[in-house]
Design a protein that fits this description.
The structure holds two protein chains of two kinds. By secondary structure, chain A is an alpha/beta fold. Chain A has 13 helices and 16 strands. In chain A, helix 4 packs parallel to helix 6, helix 9 crosses helix 13 and helix 10 crosses helix 11. By secondary structure, chain B is of the alpha/beta class. Chain B has one domain: Thiamin diphosphate (ThDP)-binding fold, Pyr/PP domains (Rossmann fold), CATH 3.40.50. Chain B has a five-stranded parallel β-sheet with strand order 1-2-3-5-4, sandwiched between helices. Classes of the chains: A alpha/beta, B alpha/beta. Chains A and B meet through helix 4, strand 4 and helix 6 of A and helix 4 and helix 5 of B.
C-alpha cells in the first residue's frame, strides 16, 4: 500500500472549484466560516472577488445562494437559460441538517442552480464526535424533489464531479469526506458521468455496491475474497440520486446477491435506494452495511470505521456469511 | 406627490383590494388581512416605482421583489395583475388545482413572481443573494424584500440583516409591514420586537418609518431608499411601515381573526360593495379634477 496516494475528497472539491472557474466566470462560492476545512479556501485564494463568507449562518447562506442562482442569462428563442452557478459549503451536518428547510423551500422547490458542497460527511469525521458526524444527510436529501446527490469515492472522482457541474443545471448535494483515503482513479483518464454507476471489478457470486470512501474498502474486500474463492463484483455508485437502476438490476440478475456499503445510516441511504430499485426490478437477497440506527462517538477515524464495521474486514466477513462460505 | 398621481394610485390600490377579496373568497381560504394592509405599498411599487416589464418578466435588468411574507400572495398577485402580468379575472383561480396562483408565491409559475416564498424568514436571504448578484454584475437594478413584523422573529432574518450590511448591499430595500398583529396575538404579547428601528439601525441599516396608507409618505420613503449617494452609500435601507391589517374593509380592520380566514358570501358581498363605493368615489374625484382643468 506504500505507493497508494492518500487524499481526502474535500481536496478534490477545492481543486475542482478553482478549475471550474475557468469555464464558468459567473460562478460564486459561499461558505459559512469553514472555508479552510471545506477547502473552499482554495477558491477564495484564487478568486477572492467571487468568494463570500457568510459567517456562521447556514440558513442565510443557503438563501443567499438561492437568490444568486435566480440571476444569470435568461432563455431566448435560440438558447436555454444559463443560470448563475453557485456553490454553498459547510459541513454536512450544518448544510443538510441545520439548513434542511432552506434547502427544501429556497433551492429544491424553485429548482435553482445551487450546488451544496457538504464536507465532513459520515463517521470518519472522527474525534469531533457525534455532534459533527452526519450519517443522515443522504436520507434527508433523497426525499427532496429536484435534488441530485453525488458522493465521490476518491479525490479524482470528486474533482471530476465538480467540473461536471458546469454542464448541469439544478440543485445538487455533493458529499465529501474529511479523511484522507486511497486515490484509485486515474486523474488523466477518469470520466465522470452523472447518474452512471461504475463496475470496478467483475464478479459472479455476489455484488458489493459501495459509495464514497468505502468503495476503496470494497475493492480491498474483493481481492481478499478472490483469494478465498468468492467472486465479488464491485460497483461504485457515486450518484445516489438519480440512481443507476440498470447496473443494479443487472448485478442482481447476474450475481443473485447484493451487499450495500455506505458511511451513512442504513435507513434512507444507498442501501435503501438499492432496495427500492430491486423491489421494482426483481428482488434478490440484500445485506446492508452502514451505520445501524445509532449515533457515533469520538475516536480516530480509521478506528471508528472499524468499530462500526465500515472496513474491508467486515465486508469480507458479511460477504462470506452471505454466500454461505 | 401630485393629486392626480395620488388618486390614480388610490384607484389601483382599491382594485388590488378587490382582487384580494375576490381571490380569497373564491379560494375559501387565504390571508386577506395582511394582504389588504400591504395593498397600498405593493401597488405603489409595481405601478409607480419598480422597473419591470410584463412582456418580459425575466428581463435580467429588472427590479426584483421578494415577498418574504409569502402568505400575502393575494396582494402580490392582484398588483401583478393590475400591472398587466396576467388578467385580473385570474384572481378567482387563486389556490385552485392547476392554477398559476398558488397559495404562496412560486417563481417560474406565476409571471412576475421573482422568488418562491411562504416559509417565513427565507425571502430576505434570497433578496440578499439577488442584491449581491447585482453588485457582482455591476447592474443597477434594485431588490425589494417585504417582511411581516412577526416574521422578524425568525433568526434567519437577523442573519440576513448582518449579511446585507456587511456586504454593503445598498441596492437592497427591505420593508417591514408593521401591523402589530401576528397569527396568535399582538406582536408584543407573543414576542416583542421593540425597539425595532433601533435594532436594525444597530445592524447597520438606514431606517425610516412611515404610514403605510399615505402614498406621499410611501413615495418619499422609496425615493429616500433609492438615493445611495454620498453618506447614504453602502447601507441597505429598511422601511418600517405602520399598517392597518385589513385596511379598506372596515369589518376586517385591526382584527387578528382576519389573518388567515376567507370571507364568507355575505362578508364578500359586503366587502366588495364597500370597495366599489370607494372606487366610484375616487374615480369621480379624478374625473372632476381632470374635467375641471
Amino acid at each position: 500500500m506504500s505507493d497508494v496516494v492518500m487524499r481526502a475528497t474535500r481536496e478534490g472539491y477545492g481543486e475542482g472549484l478553482v478549475e471550474l472557474y475557468k469555464k464558468r466566470k459567473d460562478m460564486v462560492v459561499l461558505d459559512a466560516d469553514l472555508a479552510s476545512a471545506t477547502k473552499t479556501a482554495m477558491f477564495e485564494k484564487s478568486h477572492p472577488d467571487k468568494f463570500f463568507n457568510c459567517g456562521i449562518a447556514e440558513a442565510n447562506m443557503i438563501g443567499v445562494a438561492a437568490g444568486l442562482a435566480t440571476t444569470g442569462k435568461p432563455a431566448t428563442s435560440k438558447s436555454a437559460a444559463v443560470p448563475r452557478l453557485v456553490f454553498a459549503s459547510s459541513f454536512a451536518m450544518f448544510a443538510a441538517g441545520r439548513a434542511f428547510e432552506q434547502i427544501r423551500n429556497s433551492i429544491a422547490y424553485p429548482n435553482l442552480n445551487v450546488k451544496i458542497g457538504a464536507t465532513h460527511g459520515g463517521i470518519s469525521v472522527g474525534e469531533d464526535g457525534a455532534s459533527h458526524q452526519c450519517n443522515e444527510d443522504i436520507a434527508l436529501m433523497r426525499v427532496l424533489p429536484n435534488m441530485t446527490i453525488i458522493n465521490p469515492a476518491d479525490s479524482v472522482e470528486a474533482r471530476a464531479a465538480v467540473l461536471a457541474m458546469a454542464e448541469h443545471n439544478g440543485p445538487v448535494y455533493m458529499r465529501f469526506g474529511r479523511l484522507a483515503v486511497p486515490v484509485f482513479n486515474d486523474r488523466e483518464t477518469y470520466k465522470f458521468q452523472l447518474g452512471k454507476g461504475l463496475q470496478l471489478r467483475e464478479g459472479t457470486d455476489v455484488t458489493i455496491i459501495a459509495t464514497g470512501l468505502l468503495v476503496a474498502q470494497a475493492l480491498e474486500a474483493h481481492d481478499i475474497l478472490a483469494g478465498q474463492g468468492i467472486s465479488a463484483r464491485v460497483i461504485n455508485i457515486h450518484t445516489i440520486k438519480p440512481i443507476d437502476a440498470e447496473i443494479i438490476a443487472k448485478a442482481a440478475k447476474e450475481t443473485g446477491r447484493i451487499i450495500t456499503v455506505e458511511e451513512h445510516s442504513v435507513i434512507g441511504g444507498l442501501g435503501d435506494a438499492v432496495c427500492s430499485v430491486l423491489a421494482e426490478a426483481g428482488s434478490v437477497p440484500v445485506k446492508k452495511i452502514g451505520i445501524e440506527d445509532r449515533f457515533g462517538y469520538s475516536g480516530p477515524a480509521l478506528e471508528l470505521l472499524k468499530e462500526f464495521g465500515l472496513c474491508s474486514e467486515n465486508i469480507v466477513k458479511v460477504t462470506k456469511e452471505f454466500c454461505g462460505k | 406627490m401630485e393629486t392626480i398621481a395620488n388618486l390614480n394610485l388610490q384607484i389601483t390600490a382599491c382594485k388590488v383590494r378587490m382582487g384580494i377579496i375576490e381571490g380569497t373568497y373564491h379560494a375559501k381560504s387565504g390571508h386577506p388581512g395582511g394582504s389588504l394592509g400591504l395593498a397600498d405599498t405593493i401597488t405603489y411599487l409595481y405601478m409607480s416605482h419598480m422597473k419591470v416589464n410584463p412582456q418580459k418578466p425575466d428581463d435580467p435588468t429588472r427590479d426584483r421583489l421578494v415577498l418574504s411574507k409569502g402568505h400575502n400572495a393575494p396582494a402580490l398577485y392582484a398588483a401583478l395583475a393590475q400591472r398587466g402580468f396576467f388578467p385580473p379575472e385570474e384572481m378567482k383561480e387563486l389556490r385552485k388545482i392547476g392554477s398559476r396562483l398558488q397559495g404562496h408565491p412560486v417563481m417560474g409559475v406565476t409571471p412576475g413572481v421573482d422568488f418562491s416564498t411562504g416559509s417565513l424568514g427565507q425571502g430576505i436571504s434570497a433578496a440578499c443573494g439577488m442584491a449581491l448578484a447585482g453588485k457582482l454584475d455591476k447592474a443597477d437594478y434594485k431588490v425589494y424584500a417585504i417582511l411581516g413584523d412577526g416574521e422578524v422573529q425568525e433568526g434567519q432574518v437577523w442573519e440576513a440583516a448582518m449579511f446585507a450590511a456587511h456586504y454593503k448591499l445598498d441596492n437592497l430595500v427591505t420593508v417591514i409591514d408593521n401591523n402589530n398583529l401576528q397569527s396568535d396575538r399582538t406582536i408584543d404579547e407573543v414576542m416583542s420586537l421593540a425597539p425595532l428601528d433601533e435594532k436594525w439601525a444597530a445592524f447597520g441599516w438606514r431606517v425610516i418609518t412611515i404610514d403605510a396608507h399615505d402614498f406621499g409618505q410611501i413615495e418619499s420613503a422609496f425615493d429616500y431608499a433609492a438615493d445611495v449617494s454620498g453618506e447614504n452609500a453602502d447601507k441597505p435601507t429598511l422601511i418600517i411601515q405602520k399598517s392597518v391589517k385589513g385596511k379598506g374593509v372596515p369589518f376586517m380592520e385591526n382584527k387578528p381573526s382576519w389573518h388567515g380566514v376567507a370571507p364568507n358570501k355575505e362578508q364578500y358581498i359586503s366587502a366588495m360593495a364597500g370597495l366599489k363605493v370607494k372606487l366610484v368615489t375616487l374615480e369621480k374625484e379624478l374625473s372632476d379634477l381632470q374635467g375641471g382643468n
